[in-house]
Amino acid sequence: MADVKQFKLPDVGEGLTEADIVSWKVKPGDSVTVNQVIVEIETAKSLVELPSPFDGVVTDLLVPEGQTVDVGTPIIAVDVSGEAGAAATQSEALAEDLVPSPPEEGAREPGIEGSPAPKIERQAVLVGYGVKLGTTTRRARKGQAGGGPGAGRPPAEPVSPPAVAGNGDSARPGTADRPMAKPPVRKLAKDLGVDLAALTGSGPEGTITREDVQAAAAGPAAEAPAAMSVPAVPAGGEERIPIRGVRKHTALAVASSAFTAPHVTEFLQIDVTETMNAVQRLRELPEFEGRRPSPLLLVAKALMLAVARHPMINSSWDEAAQEIVVKHYVNLGIAAATDRGLLVPNIKNAHALSLPGLARALSELATTAREGKTQPADLARGTITITNVGVFGVDTGTPILTPGETAILALGQVKQAPWVHEGELAVRQVTTLALSFDHRIVDGDLGSAVLRDIGAMLTDPVRMIAWG
Questions:
Q1: Considering only the top CATH level, what class is 4-97?
Q2: Residues in a beta bridge with 76
């Protein structure tokens, strides 16, 4: 007898309320074991792999890839009865030994050759198409009217004015009068005034693609009736990207920071020729073998020494308690541009690390961010941040504070430039620093003192030894 259990989306971070289903690692009919990775999700901060809490056989994926779901929503169903596991094992053994004969119509699962269709009645889960009706309740999207299973179905007879295709559940497969298209494609068609029912899809199994809609919009078939007064659309069309995951979190965070903390940004151009020479010397030392120190290493060290000299720069504003919280430790944030958006993981207790230890931590932080494996804990409790905009080939910028922090230092590109050195004009390695700070906590004299100290240490790295 089947014993089906549902796994609900857990809170994998601090205060997580929702997450996006990025990719399923299993499919219906697969056997799973406890702690086996079954799905990859994207939270507001990072990608997270979720393990199975059950031993058994997957009966249904309740949420399609690409959908945003609330914490507590069932996302997968697993049959944990012993009979299900035994049947799956026997089926796998038979599949290895037998050569399948040509199937009768409807006898096989679409897209899986040689595999008898499971007896579980379900609707094929395709990205963007939804799942079996009644398995889960989908959260209404902002700006979208709710509707039952029949929402968006075209009427049997033509009516006037004509219905606009692409709303409601029109992308659910399985009926001839409902064109198959993913939600972003339906939205694009609605924006461009294209009737999906009039298109022939070029995608898998006749799915209507974004290119199909854009091609229709560029041709005469996309011309709307004059009564609708739809403005002309450029031939190139438009693309709409859902705001979710890291991008959504970053947008909310920077907007909140920009309009909560009064920002002040100061700039300082400095000669870093000696710092660049010191970086080359460090690369030759055995303690840094395989770590390849960069100028960012010495910038980070200089910032932490400046924090030790001016602790107020490493603080936060507690509005509820009406207090300034001074942190006597440094969780050093490093802004990292990733394919998923901007992340600011931080090195915990960076102030206590040796220079080789700091170099290793910076390398590991960058590698983890690039691979999309940064965990929520790595993004929490930062105290001060560095953003290295120089890697993008720009001189500097006006960085926005990481929420909850008081200062952020921007490092511009290092380039050769004419510079007065020891009373004579010379070509030197020059960069520009920018320090943004919360003016509720940091006055101009304190911000200037911090920036001057950092500049002095990078101009003459020996000062790091003297001030350390």
A1: mainly beta
A2: 7, 61
